[in-house]
Amino acid sequence: MNLQTDLKSEHISHLVVSGFAQVPLGTSVRDTLARMRADRRVVCLVVEEGAAAGAGDGQEEDSRQARLVGIFTERDVMRKVVDVPGMLEKPVDEVMTTDPITIGPDASAADALRLMELNHFRNLPIVDGSGRLLGIMSHQAIIDYLADRYPVEVLNRPIDPERFPRKAEGG
Amino acid sequence: MSTTATDEITLTRKDFVSDQTVRWCPGCGDYSILAQMQRILPDTGVAKEKTVFISGIGCASRFPYYMNTYGIHSIHGRAPALATGLAIANPDLTIWVITGDGDGLSIGGNHLLHAIRRNVNLNIVLFNNRIYGLTKGQYSPTSRPGTVTKSSPMGSVEQPLNPIAVAMAAEATFVARSIDSHPQHLAATLKRAAEHRGASFLEIYQNCVIFNPNEWTDLSDRKNRDDSILYLEHGKHMIFGKNRDKGIRLNGFTPEVVALDEVDLDEILVHDATSKPLASILGSMEFPDYPAAMGVIRDVRKPDYAGELIGQVETAQAQRGAGDLNQLYLAADLWTVEEREITSVASDGDGMPITGLDEEYIDEMDKPEEVLSDFQDVLVTNTLAELRPKVPITVGKRSSLARTVRQMNQHNIGCMLVTDEENRLVGIFTEWDVLNRVAGLVDDLTQETITDYMTADPLTLKEDLPIAQALNLMSIHGFRHLPLVDDGGQPTGIISFRDVVGYLNEALEEK
Ligand code: SF4
Known about the structure:
Chain A is of the alpha+beta class. Chain A has helices spanning 3-9, 29-39, 74-81, 109-119, 139-149, and strands at residues 21-24, 43-48, 67-73, 97-98, 123-127, 133-138. Chain B has helices at 30-44, 63-66, 79-89, 101-107, 109-117, 163-169, 183-195, 217-220, 225-228, 276-284, 305-320, 325-330, 357-366, 374-381, 401-411, 431-438, 467-477, 497-506; strands spanning 51-55, 70-73, 94-100, 122-128, 174-179, 200-205, 229-231, 239-240, 246-251, 254-259, 292-299, 394-396, 415-419, 425-430, 455-456, 481-485, 491-496. In chain B, 32% of the residues lie in helices and 17% in strands. Chain B: Pfam families: CBS, TPP_enzyme_C.
């Protein structure tokens, strides 16, 4: 048994993926940052039309129908915004990555991971056939999958490894 | 149970971690429950000094030691009774009762019933592992018939109790269920229990790796669990399955599992957490005949016990004035009991006989853990050093924000370690901090010092720890980077989500 065998058999829709912030095209970088902070998301999807509501939890809302045109992440904030004067008032369109590669919910987790490694992506938007934005695939989803898959080994460990009892007392 | 925070208190998980060594067996599901409890409590906004954990006796009942709040490790089965008294004496407290299937349903069965029936404002959490763990493996009131244990060598002949049905019988206003191996679900359900005012009853399926390790396998197996669990959401159809292709329908009074493509969606039951009959039906659905219902089964508002009682006292006082306890005592018939000469009974006063039995059990527990698969072996035996952690890039703690950001961009890293004069790690500063606290919020990066923006005293690991330890911290807390330090606290490396996933993805790769 290895991880690849597991990941090949799991659809992305079987994983718990991350949510995202969402803003319409033309939003200023300043407002985009505010949206990401308010939603506590490291990824913001930039869309054309449609309301920019929700933090990406609900999968059934209409706001998800907006068309994806770009992705803007914390890495972009780091590299293109934080110490570049005058960026805050520019539209997010200028700093986002346009037409990001996406993946469908029925693709396997292994495929998603391969795509991410190949392109050095840390975040991969998940979009279904009708264009609904479903979430963000990231390494976190795999970490969480592993934790749930091997709870005895991973979850049920002492918080502080320095204070591991030398002998278990059965409680 | 809800308490409104009077002052703005921002606590973190660390505030709830005590300095006690956790004494559960490695691999015990209690660890997961503890971690989630410590994680959600800051979100409830209740101050530490307003929080009390009361337990009875058993493995689960060691819980209060590990919480940095008030706590009482009380008498076997009596935690609900003690907690009831406390809730009346000080209605401002947020009280958690931690119990197990033995403590709560056998030894303290009646106390549990009455605390629930009275709707005392408590959060009662029952860890159900279907075994007596602390006393080393006898069948419990929730063990299934036929369970072979040391006290039932030919299989238990008893009918088990169903904790949800017990709570329903006691008219519980909040009934929920979750499982230790599903941390997201567990955290969300704990939060719901905390929010409810009145008695909240939460059953958690918990893995006793030592004495009953296979009890919840079907429900905890990540690959198949979604076929065995019905996640409840108020107002939503009862649809389940890994591919969400099955549903629950009522046939007369009996629920049945149907394939979604064979029925109309409106035949499928819709969850209503305010419906008592529905809660009883959900509670009666036993796995494997049905999927196990998880989440909030029932949630209704009723007056809570302390509120009603205190209201009556106030009314009585308004009508008749404050009472006088002394006067009440003296109003009764009184007499004095005289002391008499007692003939003393001889006793050798020595301790209990040593049977040697315990040694045998300890030996059994010391047996090396069975390694189930090569991959699990990799998780627990391969160390973090094998990930070849990146050489850490550091800045001194007096550095400016501008310098830190420049360095991070130069090295193309998302996480900077901050050190003091002796090169000891004092903080961590990540891209999220840049987004959350700096970009667009700080005008002049050269004027600000990194120490005001970093996370101080981050959790660290040592290189010789197993990979599973890093996974644990990453999954429970969502830490994307973990600094590694040596014994002197100097950083030796840094690992990220990506490093761990990358390494494990290639581990045992088929050639
Ligand atoms: S005996 Fe079982 S329940 Fe008790 S600490 Fe050990 S694994 Fe946990």
